[in-house]
Structure formats: structure tokens, C-alpha cells
Design goal:
Elements (H helix, E strand, L loop, with lengths): L4 E7 L2 E8 L6 E5 L4 E4 L3 E8 L17 E6 L6 E3 L6 E3 L3 H7 L8 E6 L10 H17 L2 E5 L5 H11 E2 L4 E4 L12 H12 L6 E6 L6 E6 L3 E3 L8 E3 L6 E4 L5 E3 L12 E2 L7 E5 L7 H8 L4 E6 L10 H7 L4 E6 L12 H9 L2 E2 L5 H15 L1 H7 L15
Parallel strand pairs: 6-9, 6-10, 10-12, 12-13, 20-21, 21-22, 22-23
Antiparallel strand pairs: 1-2, 1-5, 2-3, 3-4, 7-8, 11-19, 13-14, 14-17, 15-16, 17-18
Helix pairs in contact: 2-3, 3-8, 6-7, 8-9
Bound molecules: aspartic acid.
Length: 405
């Protein structure tokens, strides 16, 4: 049985090396170091190189008294994934301890305790998961010097925003993910984790996202959790701070931290948890021709929080105005822009002025996803009327007072 072993073979006069995948056709299927699978019907086995660990041993973690203590909460995603030798697919199957035993250098930075909260791909996160996560982080912050959350990259900015609003933290809370799983040569998992470990014991007191800053293995950026977005499907430097500078740059392998913009400092805020989120809030992307009946539909289903991703400075078509006027009587409607970069200004064009008159609120320079979570948080904890006042106020760094042009 060669499955799961690393082998060297000769086929069509060339040498190939890779891990033998399960095959149901009788052909040899190798996972090459590039991450791609290749099938061979005729080949010569030259060497069996090594057994590949499909089961990672539980980490034996010895603690050092001179190091800070950090909790890693694992929620799943690619950072916690490896190839599944039964199917050849990348699946999420690792506990946090197993991640640590893959990246032993972390033990030089901090003592780590690990907790597996979820083992899911982040498209499966729901508001209830965010609440549970915020509660776990809150408990961990009572005992530990910092918290790292390993998370799938696709919806990491929603979760980071949710935790940032629900939790007033005096210590670092760092979300980290990976674009490539740790069994791939181009994996970003180890470097991202080491940089996030450095951040988790740093001088900061807020929720950050730590991911590759370039396509090389030379530095990571720490982004404010409420100002960041995944901007590329596959690049390792997919995460960008939008309408804000990154909070810090962490060089690799030195792990020197350079602070780049304003941040809450460690100890600046008290630890508090506001663990309610209103789920009946919706984010609607306007496109030319979309009728306002969509918004009426959600309203009829009991939704009272609406974030619109409008065009340009913050517009929808004029035929939405009457509907919005009615909706605004008992609901909160916040305008954001599908441009992402820049600030909403509904005082330039007639459509914008009509929207303001109808009761729509300008979402400043909020990212649409951050505005969605902010509304869930505000309505859940304070109700509609107070939410209308608070939505334009900067609470945790989600609104910058000035926009760069
Ligand atoms: N679909 C995955 C997720 O978001 C991708 C990743 O982890 O990067 O969970």
C-alpha cells in the first residue's frame, strides 16, 4: 500500500516526486509539490521516500515562566486544513494543538493553550457562532495575555468585526488564516501564525487580522478587524485595509513589529462583553434595474436593519425613494458604497439628497460588511432609535474621521 507515502517515480523519461493519493482507477495518482495531482498509468517506482504524517501527534506543550500566555481558539478554515488522503480534497480536520505541533517556533514566543471551538469552513459561520466566539474570547481574556483565533479567510472580516463590536478588549485579539493549506510548499499558515503570535503579546488592545503583506514570505500586516477585507480569491496577500492604514507591519523572520497607525493600546479599555446581535439585518447590493420590492420583501419578513451597497457616492435608482421613505419610519437604512474605497456623500446629486430626505443614513467610510455587523450589534444591544444615533459614531475604529483622496 503506497497511499499516503512520498515516492519517486519515472514516467515518460521524467522523474516525479509526490505523495500517493488514493485511486480507484488502478492508476497511480501523485500529489505533486506544486499542490496539483497527476495520474500515471505507466511508471516505474524508483524509491519510497517517507511516510507522510496523516495524523499529527497531539502537541506536548511545556510552558516557560518567562513567557506570556496566549490562548489559540481554532474555528477551522484552510489554516486548519490538510489534504484528506481518502478523497484528495483539502478538508478542515486539525485541532489547535496540532497546528502548534506543526509550528514549534511558536513556543519561543509564548506559552500556548489551545481550544477547538469549531472545525468549519468560514462560509458556514452564522451570527450565533460569532456570539459563541465572542463569549469564548471574553473568558480567555480573563486569564491569558492575548488570544489568537484561527479562522477561514473567506468571512474572517465579518467575524473580526463581530468580535470587535461585541467585545471591549484591553488585550490583543488576533484573527489569522491561510490562503494555502499547511501541506503545500507555498503555504502561508506557519508565517501568519508566528506573526500573529508576536502580535498577541504586543502592546495593542484591540481586534486585528494578521495575514501576509506581500506575495513573498517577508512580512505580514496587522489590519484593524473592522477595516479589512479579503480582496483576492487566492493570493497570499489577499487582505487589505480599506479606508485606513494597516495597524502594523510584522517583518519575517525577525518578527520585528512596526506600528503604522492609531490603535487602542493594551490596558486602555476595560474588558466588557455585549453579546447580543440582531439577526434580522440585511445587506443588499444595488444594481441597475433592481426593484425596491426586494427591500419590501425583507421588511415584510420582519427585518428592520438594512445596509445598502449603493453606487458611487451612495445611490440607488430614484424609483426606490418612496419605498425607502416608508421603510425608514420603523427601520434603519444605512448607505454604503460598492466602490469600497472612499466616503458616502449623499449631498452632491439629487438622488442622494432625496435619499437623505427619505431618512437614509450615510454610512461614512464604513465597509458594507462592517456596516452590516455594526447594525446587528447596535439594534441587538440598543434598539432601532438609539442605533440610528450611534451608527455614524466611531466606536472601535470602524469610521475614520478623514478620507485620503
Ligand atoms: N473557504 C475557506 C474558508 O473561508 C477558505 C480559507 O480558509 O481560506 O474557510
Amino acid at each position: 500500500m503506497l497511499t499516503g507515502k512520498r515516492v519517486k517515480i519515472k514516467a515518460k523519461g521524467k522523474i516525479f516526486e509526490g505523495i500517493v493519493m488514493p485511486s480507484f482507477t488502478g492508476n497511480l495518482v501523485l500529489k505533486l509539490d506544486s499542490g496539483y495531482n497527476a495520474g500515471f498509468c505507466e511508471y516505474e517506482l524508483i524509491e519510497v521516500l517517507e511516510e507522510v504524517k496523516t495524523q499529527i501527534r497531539g502537541a506536548e506543550i511545556s510552558k516557560r515562566e518567562d513567557l506570556p500566555n496566549v490562548k489559540i481558539i481554532s474555528t477551522g478554515g484552510t489554516i486548519a486544513s490538510r489534504v484528506d488522503y481518502r478523497t484528495g480534497a483539502v478538508t478542515s480536520q486539525f485541532t489547535a494543538e496540532e497546528i502548534i505541533s506543526d509550528v514549534p517556533e511558536i513556543a519561543e514566543i509564548c506559552n500556548v493553550d489551545a481550544e477547538l471551538l469549531y472545525n468549519i469552513l468560514s462560509e458556514n459561520m452564522k451570527p450565533n457562532n460569532w456570539i459563541e466566539l465572542a463569549r469564548r474570547v471574553y473568558e480567555a481574556l480573563k486569564k491569558y495575555d492575548g488570544v489568537i483565533i484561527t479562522h477561514g479567510t473567506d468571512t474572517m472580516h465579518y467575524s473580526a468585526s463581530a468580535v470587535a463590536f461585541m467585545l471591549s478588549t484591553p488585550k490583543p485579539v488576533v484573527f489569522v488564516g491561510a490562503q494555502r493549506s499547511s501541506d503545500r510548499p507555498s503555504s502561508d499558515a506557519a508565517m501568519n501564525l508566528l506573526c500573529s503570535a508576536k502580535l498577541s503579546i504586543s502592546d495593542v488592545g484591540e481586534v486585528l487580522v494578521c495575514m501576509h503583506g506581500s506575495t513573498s514570505d517577508d512580512f505580514c500586516y496587522a489590519h484593524r478587524g473592522v477595516k479589512v477585507r479579503k480582496m483576492h480569491t487566492s493570493r497570499r496577500d489577499a487582505f487589505h485595509s480599506i479606508n485606513a492604514k494597516p495597524v502594523a507591519r510584522i517583518d519575517y523572520p525577525s518578527l520585528n513589529v512596526e506600528w503604522l497607525s492609531w490603535r487602542f493600546k493594551r490596558g486602555e479599555r476595560d474588558l466588557k462583553l455585549f453579546d447580543k446581535l440582531e439577526e434580522k439585518v440585511v445587506l443588499i447590493k444595488f444594481f441597475p434595474g433592481l426593484g425596491s420590492d426586494l427591500i419590501e420583501y425583507f421588511h415584510s419578513k420582519g427585518y428592520r436593519g438594512f445596509v445598502i451597497e449603493g453606487t458611487g457616492l451612495g445611490h440607488v435608482s430614484t424609483d426606490w425613494i418612496e419605498t425607502l421613505k416608508k421603510i425608514c419610519e420603523d427601520s434603519i437604512v444605512v448607505m454604503t458604497s460598492q466602490c469600497l474605497y472612499g466616503r458616502i456623500c449623499d449631498r452632491v446629486y439629487d438622488t442622494g439628497r432625496d435619499l437623505l430626505k427619505a431618512g437614509v443614513i450615510e454610512g461614512e467610510d464604513l465597509l458594507p460588511e462592517t456596516a452590516l455587523i455594526k447594525l446587528m450589534f447596535l439594534i441587538g444591544n440598543y434598539g432601532i432609535e438609539k442605533a440610528k444615533k450611534l451608527v455614524k459614531i466611531n466606536l472601535v475604529g470602524e469610521i475614520e474621521s478623514r478620507s485620503d483622496y
